[in-house]
């Protein structure tokens, strides 16, 4: 084959290559675009699933054990509320057992706890609104003495029941590691909700409404 023939064959080869690339490259670009779309869809779906899991409320725990019997006493939702005894401002013993048949909001707090202070007006409003319906609040002070408690409630303007956990036994029994911590106890003496942190009025009212709707 002479130089002329070789040159002609090269031109034909180059033309064939360009023709092949002209057909193949759009398909490669399409495959890449499809891959990016698929990856994007998977990422969005994954984020959506995670967000749904984080934002959806957990299913409520069972309130009874096998055969309808109450779960054993423990500071957990679904269990019978452990017994406790506190001392009120008049020096009288306040027992949780004496409040059986009422919806009890047991709130652990102390005077210098700012988050505790923020939620107390909501407790006060709810106490006066629903007391006649069998709702009561028991504020268990885990730090202060009687005089500090009395001065504090006078300053902040609350009159729902408060009492002192003088021995610290109630806080230990209820495994309170930070304040405020609040337990919602139904008429049968079963803890239905446990909330750590400052309660908003909407959450407080919703929890109580749920318990009132049962009877």
Features of this protein?
16% strand; 2 domains; single chain; Glutaredoxin; disordered N terminus; alpha/beta; 215 residues; 7 strands
Task: Give the helices and strands, then pairings.
Elements: H1 3-55, E1 85-88, E2 93-95, E3 103-109, H2 114-130, E4 135-141, H3 146-156, E5 162-164, H4 169-173, E6 181-185, E7 191-196, H5 201-212
Parallel strand pairs: 3-4, 4-5
Antiparallel strand pairs: 1-2, 1-5, 3-6, 6-7
End-to-end distance: 103 Å
Mean pLDDT: 79
* Form type: globular
Structural class: alpha/beta
Number of helices: 5
Which blocks of ≥5 consecutive residues have pLDDT under 50?
3-22, 30-66
CATH fold annotation of the largest domain: Glutaredoxin
Order of helices and strands: HEEEHEHEHEEH
Radius of gyration: 33 Å
Q: CATH first level of the largest domain: which class? A: Alpha Beta
Major β-sheet annotation: 7 strands, mixed
The CATH superfamily of the largest domain appears as Glutaredoxin
Instruction: Give the total of beta strands.
Output: 7
Helix percentage: 40-55%
Strand content: 15-25%
Q: Output the strand order for the largest sheet.
A: 2-1-5-4-3-6-7
How many structural units, i.e. domains? 2
- CATH architecture title of the largest domain: 3-Layer(aba) Sandwich
């Amino acid at each position: 084959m002479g130089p002329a023939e070789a040159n002609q064959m090269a031109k034909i080869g180059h033309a064939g290559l360009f023709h092949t690339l002209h057909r193949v490259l759009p398909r490669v670009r399409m495959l890449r675009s499809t891959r990016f779309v698929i990856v994007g869809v998977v990422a969005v779906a994954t984020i959506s699933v995670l967000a749904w899991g984080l934002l959806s409320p957990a299913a409520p725990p069972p309130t009874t054990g096998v055969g309808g019997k109450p779960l054993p006493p423990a500071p957990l939702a679904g269990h019978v509320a452990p017994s406790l005894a506190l001392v009120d401002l008049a020096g009288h013993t306040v027992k949780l057992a004496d409040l059986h048949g009422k919806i009890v909001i047991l709130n652990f707090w102390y005077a210098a706890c700012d988050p505790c202070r923020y939620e107390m007006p909501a407790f006060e409003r709810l106490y006066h609104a629903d007391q006649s319906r069998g709702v009561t609040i028991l504020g268990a002070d885990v730090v202060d003495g009687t005089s500090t408690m009395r001065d504090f409630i006078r300053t902040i303007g609350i009159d729902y029941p408060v009492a002192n956990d003088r021995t610290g036994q109630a806080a230990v029994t209820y495994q309170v590691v930070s304040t405020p911590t609040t337990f919602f106890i139904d008429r049968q003496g079963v803890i239905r909700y446990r909330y750590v942190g400052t309660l908003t009025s909407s959450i407080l009212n919703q929890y109580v409404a749920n318990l009132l709707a049962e009877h």
